[in-house]
């Protein structure tokens, strides 16, 4: 690997089924990362909530600590250094205060240093059919800053799970130069069956970006069912690799040149228009579009 932005590189998606024991979850992640290294991976992505998937507040706060004391982060930094690959921790539950956590993603470079952090912006506060309900904001503090980071092969936009439903975030990342969009997730089975594939492909297509989506999958120790189906999607919206619901490793070779090729075919990033919304009047009116300078 010569480090050129035109070089191909191999991506490994780590699919997990995190439980309530951070040590067991770390062991599972480390095993799959080492397997990815053996398979030639240059960059690996773990799913959201790599260290713990807990619904009950008391279980969560009994098992999480501040970033500087987190053993999962320390272990993943060490494996990045030992294997000399980029380890992107999809997210960890990190204690931010006595009563709030953050859902934080970490990009770890080949030396084991933290190259970027991102706190999930959009909190998953929803009520689904069948009584399935979540209030992420009860336990977590939302982030408020979008983050891009440079890899040897291009720029990466960092997001987490429910962020997927907010396309303006991804357009901002693409406009900031992102060629790759990371969307590590713990999607519910119910919403995953309805929306996972179409939303992931849409984010790739509308921004001309690769999408890396490592997922949690299956029935977890806390009784929650997550959808799995980790995806790697090219800038034209084609699925290059897909997992099932079982934990495992899914890999593909990535050619960054495909980003420019897709954007040349459909240059929507250059055609973006900002709209002025006109309030309704007694007579019909129209929306006025203002062309932004190129």
Question: What is this structure's SSE topology?
Answer:
Layout: E1 9-15, H1 22-38, E2 43-45, H2 57-61, H3 71-83, E3 86-95, E4 101-108, E5 114-119, E6 125-127, E7 133-135, E8 147-151, E9 154-158, H4 167-175, E10 178-182, H5 189-207, E11 210-213, E12 217-219, E13 225-227, E14 231-233, E15 239-242, E16 248-254, H6 257-265, E17 273-276, E18 288-291
Parallel strand pairs: 1-2, 2-3, 9-10, 10-11
Antiparallel strand pairs: 1-16, 3-4, 4-5, 6-7, 8-9, 11-14, 12-13, 14-15, 17-18
Average pLDDT, rounded to a whole number, is 93
**Rg over C-alpha atoms, rounded to the nearest angstrom:** 19 Å
CATH-defined superfamily: Carbon-nitrogen hydrolase
Biggest sheet layout: 6 strands, mixed
Number of strands: 18
What is the helix fraction of residues, given as a range? 10-25%
Order of helices and strands: EHEHHEEEEEEEHEHEEEEEEHEE
Structural class: alpha+beta
What does this structure look like?
Helix content is 24%, strand content 30%. The radius of gyration is 19 Å and the shape is globular. The strands form five sheets. A six-stranded mixed sheet has the order 5-4-3-2-1-16. A six-stranded mixed sheet has the order 8-9-10-11-14-15, covered by helices on one side. A two-stranded antiparallel sheet has the order 6-7. The longest helix is centred in the last third of the chain and has 19 residues, at 189-207. It is built from six helices and 18 strands. With 294 residues, the chain is an alpha+beta fold. It has a single domain, classed as 4-Layer Sandwich (Nitrilase/N-carbamoyl-D-aminoacid amidohydrolase), CATH 3.60.110. The protein has helices at 22-38, 57-61, 71-83, 167-175, 189-207, 257-265, and strands at residues 9-15, 43-45, 86-95, 101-108, 114-119, 125-127, 133-135, 147-151, 154-158, 178-182, 210-213, 217-219, 225-227, 231-233, 239-242, 248-254, 273-276, 288-291.
């Amino acid at each position: 690997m010569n480090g050129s932005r035109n070089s191909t590189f191999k991506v490994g998606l780590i699919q997990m089924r995190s439980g309530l024991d951070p040590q067991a979850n770390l062991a599972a992640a480390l095993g799959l990362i080492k397997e990815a290294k053996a398979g030639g991976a240059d960059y690996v992505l773990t799913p959201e909530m790599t260290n713990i998937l807990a619904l009950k507040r008391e279980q969560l706060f009994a098992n999480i600590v501040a970033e500087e004391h987190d053993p999962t982060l320390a272990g993943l930094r060490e494996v990045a250094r030992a294997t000399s690959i980029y380890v992107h921790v999809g997210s960890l539950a990190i204690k931010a205060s006595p009563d709030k956590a953050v859902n934080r993603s970490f990009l770890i470079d080949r030396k084991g240093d933290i190259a970027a952090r991102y706190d999930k912006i959009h909190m998953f506060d929803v009520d689904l059919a069948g009584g399935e309900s979540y209030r992420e904001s009860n336990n977590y503090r939302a982030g408020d800053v979008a983050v891009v980071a440079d890899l040897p092969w291009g720029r990466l936009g960092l997001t987490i799970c429910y962020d997927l439903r907010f396309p303006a975030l991804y357009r901002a990342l693409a406009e900031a130069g992102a060629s790759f969009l990371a969307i590590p997730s713990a999607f519910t089975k119910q919403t995953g069956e309805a929306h996972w594939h179409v939303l992931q492909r849409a984010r790739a297509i509308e921004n001309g970006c690769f999408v890396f989506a490592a997922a949690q999958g299956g029935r977890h120790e806390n009784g929650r069912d997550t959808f799995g189906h980790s995806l790697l999607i090219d800038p034209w919206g084609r699925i290059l690799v897909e997992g099932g619901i079982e934990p495992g490793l899914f890999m593909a070779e990535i050619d960054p040149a495909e980003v420019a090729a897709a954007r040349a075919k459909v240059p929507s990033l250059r055609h973006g228009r900002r709209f002025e919304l006109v309030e309704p009047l007694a007579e019909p009116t129209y929306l006025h579009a203002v062309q932004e300078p190129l």
